[in-house]
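Everyone, carefully examine this protein record:
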Amino acid sequence: MTRQGRLCSVMRNDCERKVLFFDVDGTLVDEAGKDIPESTVKALVKAMEKGHLVFVNSGRARCMLKFLEETLPADGFLCGCGTQIVVKGESRFHRTLSRERGEEIKKLLSDCRLAAWLEGEGGVWFPDDEPRTERTRRMRESMMRDYGMVPGWDGPEVVFDKFCALDEGGCDLERFFAGIPDMDVIDRGDGMYECVPAGCSKATAMDWVLKEYGLPLESAYVFGDSTNDIPMFEFAPNRIAMGVHAPELEQFNPFITKTVEEGGVAWAMEQLGII
């Protein structure tokens, strides 16, 4: 279907307040994770001036979104696939894994020979052993550079909300999956699994926002590009997929906009009459 055709299938009502939910990587910022197009910032400002609400809805934990909290115009941040909700700088909801459960998960990851990192409000943590593959080494170096993390996940400060596991080969995935019945697992492809406490998702965070502001589901617009955006696309009636997006999003018949680098967020908001 063409962009114009999909435009007709997206609900719009210029007289109603809208709530706009944005993924981060590949949606608000480029895949390098740092550059926000100027057109995107201007579009968000304009939307808020018109009375619409703007929420970042990310798989990243809050500590990984500080650069956006400090620079991006938004009413709030939905962090870690719904594990934390921040409104106007105040944490209104936060679900963490207990220390006991955290220790069990770390042991399971080690026993099953999975590379992994833990994500929470206070940081991102890797084990202090040497990475077995070049891919894992690069990931560690990137996170150490971007988030100031240091190797080691056994300290008392390590309280985490979610985690990611990476199959580097020779891993016992059957045992791993059997050991986390309390987690929802998002297959990110290429052997990467994003693990979130059951009952938390980008959709549950959106539902909280709509109830908090007393707004109907029809007011929700979602912008995304990857498989961890599927809960958003399942939940909201108004769906916008970036120009480069996971094929799994096609089933929701979204309006397809341009890429991040082409100003896709601003272009979609203009085409849909949001700004």
Summary: The chain has two domains: 3-95+200-271, 99-197. Residues 99-197 form a domain with the Hypothetical Protein, Haloacid Dehalogenase-like Hydrolase; Chain: A; domain 2 fold (CATH 3.30.1240.10). The CA atoms of residues 7 and 271 lie 8 Å apart. The first strand starts at residue 19 and ends at 22.
